[in-house]
């Protein structure tokens, strides 16, 4: 584990240093959140146009499913329906591909990359695989550009039994209902400068601990599963993405965000133990993308295309290698 600095790091404006938040501090945090973009316009409307329009070719073999309604009315907020794209012609003998985006709502290319894959590439694979795509698991966080849900819970640490996060619980329940076995799971994320300027300090304040600063890596990387690393699979994805955008280098300690580099652009986490989205199935092939949208060397469109390239390369790998 790389050494991290806790010196001269920002003090979060909510709470008391060293004391974990209680209900008041969480309410204070929620009160300062503002809606900054529109889930209906940026996510629901494109999905509707792609899958409910009679003239859309995608509608013949993929369907839009409302799998839950997230009710934030007790917090004085709105209700949000959440959607999945599902293969109509589901065949038990085909590999099942799960794509998740927007677990962290502020990680924009995770959502937009999933939508771009649906619009541009899904047609290439509809006869070869079963597909489940959940493009925006955390819609309130998407609108407010947040890592947490309104209860100050990180959904990407809550993919566990009896999950405290409605977003995670709804996604897990739907996937268990739809797919007995998942072959491939790609979870789309970003690592941003706000991880150090906002979300890291907020987490430290919430938990009553010191903020641990990590350098943000400039470039794309993957997070494999330490219990099932599949290094050849990860390498194939990096090889595809490097045609689209640059790959993050390790820091001076040989790490990315404090984790030892396993190979170019790849680190590993214990996904199930940490309650990560990537650990919610027993898929043979699992990875989490991490795009760096704040890089001077990458555009928003490159970030979206990097997400799409990962999904395509992953499906291609599964179709070539099967369950080997």
TrEMBL record:
Alphabetical list of PROSITE patterns matching this protein: PEPTIDASE_M14
Entries under Gene3D superfamilies matching the protein: Zn peptidases (3.40.630.10)
Domain of life, per lineage: Bacteria
A biological process from GO: proteolysis
One MF annotation (Gene Ontology) recorded for this entry: metallocarboxypeptidase activity
Positions of the Peptidase M14 domain: 37-303
Entry keyword Nucleotide-binding: no
Keywords of this entry: Carboxypeptidase, Hydrolase, Metal-binding, Protease, Zinc
Cofactor(s) demanded: Zn(2+)
Residues in the signal sequence: none
InterPro entries, sorted: AstE_AspA_cat, Peptidase_M14
Family: Belongs to the peptidase M14 family.
Protein name: M14 family metallocarboxypeptidase
């Amino acid at each position: 584990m790389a050494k991290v600095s806790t010196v001269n790091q920002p003090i979060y404006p909510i709470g008391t240093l060293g004391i974990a938040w209680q209900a008041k501090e969480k309410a204070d945090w929620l009160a300062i959140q503002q809606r900054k973009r529109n889930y209906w316009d940026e996510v629901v409307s494109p999905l509707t146009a792609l899958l409910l329009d009679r003239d859309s070719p995608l509608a013949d073999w993929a369907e839009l499913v409302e799998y839950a309604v997230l009710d934030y009315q007790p917090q004085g907020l709105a209700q949000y329906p959440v959607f999945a794209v599902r293969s109509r012609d589901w065949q038990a003998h085909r590999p099942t591909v799960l794509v998740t985006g927007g677990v962290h709502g502020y990680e924009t290319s995770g959502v937009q990359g999933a939508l771009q894959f649906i619009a541009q590439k899904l047609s290439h694979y509809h006869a070869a695989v079963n597909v489940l795509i959940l493009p925006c698991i955390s819609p309130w966080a998407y609108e407010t550009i947040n890592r947490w849900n309104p209860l100050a819970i990180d959904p990407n640490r809550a993919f566990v039994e009896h999950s405290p996060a409605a977003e995670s619980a709804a996604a897990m329940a739907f996937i268990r209902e739809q797919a007995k076995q998942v072959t491939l799971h790609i979870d789309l994320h970003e690592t941003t400068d706000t991880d150090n300027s906002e979300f890291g300090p907020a987490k430290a304040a919430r938990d009553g601990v010191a903020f641990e600063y990590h350098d943000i890596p400039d470039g794309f990387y993957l997070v494999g599963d330490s219990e099932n690393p599949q290094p050849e699979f990860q390498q194939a994805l990096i090889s595809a993405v490097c045609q689209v955008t640059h790959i993050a280098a390790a820091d001076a300690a040989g790490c990315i965000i404090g984790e030892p580099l396993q190979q170019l652009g790849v680190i590993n986490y214990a996904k199930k133990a940490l309650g990560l989205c990537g650990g919610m199935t027993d898929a043979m092939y699992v990875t989490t993308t991490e795009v760096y949208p704040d890089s001077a060397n990458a555009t928003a469109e490159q970030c979206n295309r990097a997400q799409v390239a990962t999904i395509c390369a992953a499906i291609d790998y599964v179709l070539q290698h099967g369950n080997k």
